[in-house]
C-alpha cells in the first residue's frame, strides 16, 4: 500500500514531468537491484526507488535532447490519456459535488476568501461540464489546465485563511515526517515533496478535494 509520503513523491515526479513509462522503468530497476541482493527487510516505501527513477529520467531527457520540447511531450501525454467523455464527466460531477458539500459546511460558520473561492470553483466546474457535454471532442489537455488552475485558486485561498499557529504546526509535523528521508533526497525533490505533503494536509483539514485528472 502507498503511504501519503509515497503519493507526495509520485506527485513530485508528475510536477517534474517524469513520463509514466520512465518512472515504472526506474521502479523495476530498483527492485531488480534489491532482488539481486536479498535483504532481511522488505521495501516499505516508494522512496527506495527515488534515486533510480530520477536517474532514469535524467537519461531519458539526455536521450531526447534536440527532439521534442518538454512542453510538447506533456501535451501528448495528456492528449493520449485513456479518459473517455463519460469518465471525464463523472470526474467533474464528483468534484463539483464534493466542493459543494465543503462550501455548504464552511458557509455556515465563515464568510471568507475560501468560501468565495469554493463558490467560484463550483460554478466554473459546472461550466466545464456544460462545455464538455456540448463539445464534439473531449479535450483532456484543456480540461486539465482548467482544473489545475482551479486547484491553485483553492490552494491560495486555503493559505489565506489557515491560522498561522495551525500552519506552523502542520509544517513542523511534515518536516518531522520527512526527516528520516531528507538526507537521501535532492533539495529540489525534498522541497516539492514537502510542499505536496503540506498542501495535502491542508486540503484534508479544510475538506478540499483534488481536481486534477491525475486523480481520476
Question: How would you characterize this protein structure?
Answer:
This protein has 216 residues and is mainly alpha-helical. The chain folds into 2 domains: 4-79, no CATH class; 85-215. The protein is 72% helix and 0% strand. Mean pLDDT is 84; it is low at 77-81.
Query: Radius of gyration in whole Å, from Cα?
Result: 19 Å
- Estimated structural class: mainly alpha
Question: Into which percentage range does the β-strand content fall?
Answer: under 5%
Low-confidence spans: 77-81
Shape: globular
User: How many strands?
Assistant: 0
As a percent range, the share of helical residues equals: over 70%
Features:
mainly alpha, 9 helices, 72% helix, 216 residues
